[in-house]
Amino acid sequence: MSTRRSVALVLVAGLLTAGSACSSSGGKTPDKAGYVTQGNAICAAGNARLQAVGKTIDTNNRAAVDQAVKDKVVPDIRGQIKDLRALGYPKGDKDKLSAIYDKVEAELDIWAKDPSKSNGSTVMSAANKELTAYGLSECGK
Known about the structure:
mainly alpha
């Protein structure tokens, strides 16, 4: 896989959500439809930001890619997960969603220490499939 392609996967396909923090009204548990709508909005904004990061670096320069992953991608995805968690969880789905977010956060810990590990991450690919299956299609891109 070319470096440019792997960066595109890391910056677009492998990345979860972003955007401004959203919370459910009055601390109530959101219904699934509302959660999915708000979550996809967070993710779409994050995808746009991460694509912009990808456009600012030379994707053929592995050091530049690794630096962008460490300085831009990891913190952005952490913020996205924080925003998703702040929405609350639809009834009966907290364990399922938390498990996905926990896996992503553990993977981000690895990327923060060694950004080259982001290249072809199977953990992110699996998380993206789970999020898409749940209805968070923007988060699974």
